[in-house]
Amino acid sequence: MQAVVVYESMYGNTRTIAEALGDGLRSVFDTTVVPVGDASKEVLAAADLVAVGGPTHGHSLSRASTRKAAADAARVKALRLDASSDGLGLREWFDAADRHPQAIAVAFDTRLRLHSSVTGRAGRGIARRLRRCGFSDVRDAGSFFVDRNNELLPGEAERAAAWARDFVRDLPRTEEKETP
Ligand SMILES: Cc1cc2nc3c(=O)[nH]c(=O)nc-3n(C[C@H](O)[C@H](O)[C@H](O)COP(=O)(O)O)c2cc1C
Fold first, then answer.
1. What is the pLDDT, as a whole number, of residue 174?
2. Across-strand partners of 54?
3. Buried b or exposed e, range 44-72, using 16+ CB within 10 angstroms
4. Angle, vertex CA 39, rays to CA 38 and CA 45, nearest 5
5. Is the separation of the CB atoms in 54 and 88 below 8 Å?
6. How far is the CA of 28 from the centre of ligand 1 (A)?
7. Architecture of 2-168 per CATH?
8. pTM of the prediction?
9. CB hemisphere CA count around 135 (13 angstroms)
10. Do residues 111 and 145 lie in contact, with contact meaning Cβ atoms separated by under 8 Å?
11. Which atom from ligand 1 is nearest to the alpha carbon of 146?
12. What does each C-alpha distance from 151 to 31, 35, 123 come to in angstroms?
């Protein structure tokens, strides 16, 4: 079975979480982790499971303006930009996405660790868009947290890998489904 983890990332934190989720999925799925700019329709069409995550910007998914603000801030604060950071955002990617009704989907995001009523959550908008694309079984892996310097909090990558391991452990196995 194939899984694709699609991420958007300005500073690399969401990519780290995407890779950790991918590691956790690999016990069951042949897993590819791709930046949103490389997540072509062909890559998705072959997937039994699609996980999609991005950074929370302005309480939700990024926009071209918030990605520019993030790139400007990187210059001022000497932050390293992810190799994929000058590409497409998830919002635009979803606008052009085909319907994809056959697979399970997982939404996740990164954000500051305050109550989500204060920070917003990109994952909520990602889950809604996945449902609109036709995924009937959309799971929420939740938020993974960065500090105000845009560094992932300790243990977050491990928490993401553990979430994915628990998720695959609880999935109905194909052979169980085929048992009369
Ligand atoms: C322009 C901009 C807007 C942001 N808005 C929010 C926000 O509304 N809520 C929040 O929790 N974090 C916000 N953040 C922090 C981001 O969530 C954080 O930079 C991101 O999770 C880091 O992920 P990345 O390294 O993959 O880009 C914002 C960051 C930027 C650059």
1. 55
2. 109
3. beebebbbbbbbbbeebbbeeebbeebee
4. 140
5. no
6. 31
7. 3-Layer(aba) Sandwich (3.40)
8. 0.95
9. 26
10. yes
11. 21
12. 26, 19, 19
Please report the DSSP string for 92-140 in residue order. HHHHTPPP-TTSEEEEEEEEESS-HHHH--HHHHHHHHHHHTT-S-EEE
Q: What distance in Å separates the CA atoms of residue 40 and residue 54, rounded to the nearest whole number?
A: 17
Tell me the three-class secondary structure of 33-77, residue by residue: EEEHHHCCHHHHHCCCEEEEEEECECCECCCHHHHHHHHHHHHHH
Residues 95-112 have pLDDT tens digits of 999 887 778 999 999 999
Residue 154 DSSP SS3? coil
Q: Give distance in angstroms: CA of 102 to centre of ligand 1.
A: 31
pLDDT confidence band for 150 (50 / 70 / 90): very high
Domain ranges across the chain: 2-168
Q: Could you tell me which residues come within 8 angstroms of residue 155 by beta carbon, excluding any fewer than 6 positions away?
A: none
What atom in ligand 1 is closest to the CA of residue 13? 25
* Residue with the two structure tokens 């955002």: 89
